[in-house]
Amino acid sequence: MITFFSDQQALHRDVKEVLSGELVPSFEVAQRTDIVLKAIETRGLGPVMAPAQFDTDAVLTVHDPDYVAFLRGAWDEWHALFPDTTQAMPYCFPARGFRSICPAHIEGRLGYYSADLTAAIMAGTWEAVWASVECALSGQQQIIAGEKSVFSLCRPPGHHAGRDQMGGYCYLNNAAIAAQAYRDSGCLRVAILDVDYHHGNGTQSIFYDRADVLFTSIHADPAWDYPHYLGYQDEIGVGDGKGYNLNLPLRLNSTWADYEPALLAALERIAVFQPDVLVVSLGLDSYEHDPISSFKLDAEKYTFMGQRIAELGLPTQFVFEGGYAVDALGTNTVNVLEGFQQY
Ligand SMILES: [Zn+2]
């Protein structure tokens, strides 16, 4: 299986986030991809290739052009005003009762385009975010060219990013961009399976009113974990998209005994949909020792997960999302990919 990765992705590093009331080093660190690359090499998964270059036009069917322009220029604008700081972060949001307008000042626009305090922008963020998108698009092109499977080792991750919103370590939605690219390449139906511990709120919102892209997600009950305000079972899509959004929230501390039936239900829905291609938002934070999550999957279960996904028999693009138990991240990621290949 080919992996796409760019060294540029490490330019977004040493970020801080607000967690439990404190400004702390982000769990989303550059070392995450280092350890995955090492496992890919050690276990001989296949070649690691640099992505092709793409123009920003490639994402404008998924993301709002004003938002993309904001992301691209935010650091320079912030740094000119606050030269002694290392990252740009909002402190004010258009919450209930405010008007949903985009202000002129960079602080106002940061709040307008942010969902939370976990997606700071710094020098190098845009270059990393764009390289991550290029890994997603290069993977998509490989599948269109006839590969059965591909791994886009995207970082920063993407599934919390909405059409015009960043949050949850995500800026541009790599999986959604790939899914749309399949549609633009002539695929009639695209399925997305999101196995990250957290609900893929950005991906859901992008395709919520569409019947051509099925979104399925297994995640922690948002009543008790991030992103809290989306990801409930009664969100089934709207308009043409009604019936094409499947949320399978699980209780905190769920084990494989809870997880496997949900996975099989998602796969069954995908099989009925008869897509041309599958995009897997591959988060590994369902792992038992993940520092910010509560599920109890051990390393072996990721091999089972890969095997179950392979049973669909679909061309499949894996897109890297979360997973913060860095020491185990390489093993768990490659377990899924090997499980898929060995089936
Ligand atoms: Zn996650």
Instruction: Specify the CATH homologous superfamily.
Output: Histone deacetylase domain
The order of strands across the largest sheet is: 4-1-5-10-9-6-7-8
Low-confidence stretches: none
Total domain units: 1
**CATH top level?**
Alpha Beta
Distance between the termini: 13 Å
Q: What is the overall pLDDT average?
A: 97
Task: Tell me the Rg in angstroms.
Answer: 19 Å
Question: Judging by the overall fold, what is the CATH architecture?
Answer: 3-Layer(aba) Sandwich
Number of strands: 10
Structural class: alpha/beta
- SS element count, helices: 9
Write down the overall geometry: globular
For this structure, the CATH topology is Arginase, Chain A
Strand residue percentage: 5-15%
Bound molecules: zinc ion
Largest sheet: 8 strands, parallel
> Would you list the SSEs in sequence order as H and E?
EEEHEHHHEHEHEEHEHEH
Helix content: 25-40%
Organism: Kistimonas scapharcae
Family: Belongs to the histone deacetylase family.
InterPro entries: HDACs, His_deacetylse_dom, His_deacetylse_dom_sf, Ureohydrolase_dom_sf
Cofactor: Zn(2+)
List the helices and strands and how they pair.
Layout: E1 2-4, E2 16-19, E3 22-25, H1 31-42, E4 48-49, H2 65-81, H3 106-112, H4 125-144, E5 149-152, H5 174-184, E6 190-194, H6 201-207, E7 213-220, E8 245-250, H7 256-273, E9 277-282, H8 299-310, E10 316-320, H9 326-342
Parallel strand pairs: 1-4, 1-5, 5-10, 6-7, 6-9, 7-8, 9-10
Antiparallel strand pairs: 2-3
Helix pairs in contact: 1-9, 2-3, 4-5, 7-8, 8-9
The chain binds zinc ion.
